[in-house]
Structure prediction request, 191 residues.
Amino acid sequence: EIPLSIKKFKKENQIVYIGRIHKVKGIERLLDAWSSLGKNNHWELIIAGYTDNIYFDYLNDEYTVRKKIKNIKFIGPVLGQEKWNLLARSKVFVMPSDFENFGTSILEAMYSGLPVICTHGSPWEVIKKNKCGWYINPDVKSLSRALNEAINLTDKKRNIMGKLSFNISKQFMPNSINEKLISTYENAKSK
Prediction:
């Protein structure tokens, strides 16, 4: 469900992932990339989504503790207004998946006005083409570089990228799709 308007919140120095927490989603790659940013990273990585308890325990306890990864918060699933509020408080969205058919959460982040980091495993090359985020290889080095760039941008530059994201997201909204379908139908009918 898409809200008619998104509440305005003070943006926090946080990057957010919202999606299923599963091995194919690249969460371990994200954690390794986050870890490579070093101790001077004062941002927080928020990981939200459904998972099974075994994989969650592995990531939250064993993986992050063993690798001494800091500034990470696993918050479980977020739905409805809670999800939109989380996006509104964040400065960047990340989707490190190996593969996405569409990536609804990417579109939701764009609709929320966030720059997006996603991998070539998703069909969102438009992000790179329109300079509203990073469209990268699905590896730790590329993800680390994108995270570092996102964190070190000025708020003004991130806001510009976020506005570009929002503008792109509008073409996927129901009204826009309906208009395109009607136009296509009218063109076909007139031939």
Notes: The longest strand covers residues 14-18.
